[in-house]
Amino acid sequence: MRSGLYPLFYFIKETVIQNQPRNQEGQNSRRPKAEHVVNKAIPYKKIFVIGPEGEKIGVLTKEEALDKASELKMDLVLISIENNKPIARILDYGKFKYDKKKKQKAQKEKQAVTINREIRLTPLIGDHDLATKARKAREFILDGSRVKVSVKFRGRERSRQELGQEILNKFFELISDVAKISKEATLQNDRFLDMYVEKDKRKVESIKNNEPSESESKGE
Question: What pTM did the predictor assign?
Answer without folding.
Answer: 0.47
